[in-house]
Amino acid sequence: MKKRQTHPEQEKTEKLGQNRVTLALMSVYLVIIIVISLAASSAVYNQRRLELLSEMDMTLVRAATEYENLTENFWSIYIPIFENGGNGQLTLRSYYMTEEEKELTPFEKFELREVLFDMATRDGRVQWIALYTKKREKNYIYYVGQNTLQPLEADFPYLEELQEKQDVMEIYGQKRFNMVNGSFNGIAIAGGVPESSGSGALLVGYDSSELQQICSDQQRFSTLQFDITVEGKSIFSSGSEPYLPDSSLALGSSGVFDTESGKRYVKVSDQGKNRARVYYSVEWKELFRLSNRNTPLLLLLVAGLVIFSFVVYGMILRMLSKEVGIIRTGLWQIGQKNLDYRIEGNFQQSGFAEIADSINDMAQSLKENIERAYEYELRQKEAEMQELQAKFNPHFLYNSLEMFRARCYQNKDEETAELIAQTASIFRGFLAGRTFIPLQEELAFNKRYLALFHARYGDKVEVLYDFDTEVLEYGIIRNVFQPLIENYFVHGIDPSREDNYIRFQGRLEGADMILITVDDNGTGMEPQKLEELNASLREQIATEKESYGLKNLHQRLRLFYGEPCGLTLCAKESGGLVIQILIRRKRCEDS
Predict the structure, then answer these.
(1) Which of 5, 180, 327, 446 is 20 to 30 A from 534, alpha carbon to alpha carbon?
(2) What secondary structure letter does DSSP report for 294?
(3) What is the pLDDT of residue 375?
């Protein structure tokens, strides 16, 4: 199969156009995928972030509720003791109003321990209750787990706060306590003693382990911590160090704050009494990372979808290119005049199958039209040849010559009778049915025709032949040399010379041509007239007079052999004329 012949610039332009369309489609597809991916990633991120924040918000509510319960339960311990007017109130009043430097008596300790025990039983989270008044040199603390009353030592963690206490109720931050049965982290709530009961404070210590447990439920975060502050002072922190935002946060507010280690997201509970703030904080980058935990999987799925799409697109494009290539090859074959070629293939695209069928129908129709046109052209050429031949071959002349020859024989003029016989033979050849004969037969006819002129001019004219052997294997249309011989003896011969000659030569020319030349040493022709004659040979025959001679011969050659066959006249430098006859190689058996 021949390759498609396309101009390099055209092929480059086609490929560039195809690449631009492909790149445009791919770009649009990628933009759509990117937009969808970003939208999906954003939706997944927001959904996941909302879930994480909701979990932390629920934990924040539990922590705020636990802290609120602690502060509310303090009053349930504190108020009844000073309001019921019973032994407990009397015991505490005696403790806070009496100025003593010595220790309590065992009985006083027993009564005080009973009162504090009764208070502690109201809330199971109470770990200890401390009594403090400046009137006494030594104060006491009651440990619930040990049910013991012991002196308040100088290293008591909240001693300094008690000494500086001013408000009716104060909450002190978380500190660690070491006890006989173990240690624990706790916070303390202090309440002032009513004026009717003396002066001083009662401090209740609470175990904050439950609050710590609530704040430790969110194990997925490593930087999450919960904090409780009162008037900007840290009361509780689930982290190693309390985090105190720079600005004062309103209840229920949230925001992102800068720290030395980076940004932190902070959310404040909408619950808060006594100027307390319960909030959590987490590093923003960790919240962002966990919120995007599913994003890589999503992007991986999108990438897989993109790869799958491109694979499918490549397969479809390859299939389309293959089917388009089949159609293009078919069009090229038909364009190369191979009208018997038919486009065949199992097309996946129904539209391509319809196009292929249409092209095949077009090729068939075109072939039929060309065959009809070719047949019409052959018939037209045959008719024109017959018309030209009819003008050249009058039957009545042949019959007349036969009558003249018989009369010459009757009058004993054998020489004239022989000439008439030669002439009759010549005209018999004119009347032959074949228009394409072997070159050797045409040369034999040529010799008979020259015999007539030899009778007139005798030895003044020499006839020469020089044909290659290969040339004689081919055929030629009838009566090619007759008008050339006629032209020479009418216009070219010089009767005053004794060395006139006419020479016939033939050789192969190119791949499929034969060049026959007829030259002489006659009178020749002026250059301008020669140029005009060559030009007139290629014009259509317009008059009866032009239908004979060289123009007739040129038209016959063109009709039979086609372009560029025909006659060409050239002048010789030494005098005379050269007539070139260009015909195609064609054997008689092939015609």
Answers:
(1) 446
(2) T
(3) 62
Q: CB 64: neighbour CB atoms within 10 A? A: 24
Rounded CA-CA distance 11/7 in Å is 6
Q: In sequence order, which ranges of 336-394 are alpha helices (DSSP H)?
A: 350-392
> In the 3-class helix/strand/coil scheme, how is 47-71 assigned residue by residue?
HHHHHHHHHHHHHHHHHHHHHHHHH
Strands ordered across the beta sheet of 276-283: 233-237, 225-230, 276-283, 262-268, 254-259
The backbone torsions φ and ψ at residue 62, rounded to the nearest 5 degrees and listed phi first, read -65, -40
Q: What is the DSSP letter of 448?
A: H
Lowest mean pLDDT among 7-21, 59-73, 92-106, 445-459: 7-21
Q: Where are the beta strands (DSSP E) in 252-330?
A: 254-259, 262-268, 276-283
Rounded to whole angstroms, what are the CA distances from 341 to 355, 373, 582?
A: 15, 20, 34
Q: Identify which has the larger pLDDT, 345 or 555.
A: 555
Token couple for 52 = 């994480």
3-state secondary structure 106-171: HHHHHHHHHHHHHHHCCCCCEEEEEEECCCCCCCEEEECCCCEEEECCCCCCCHHHHHHCCCCEEE
pLDDT tens per residue across span 504-542: 999 999 999 999 999 999 888 888 999 888 888 877 765
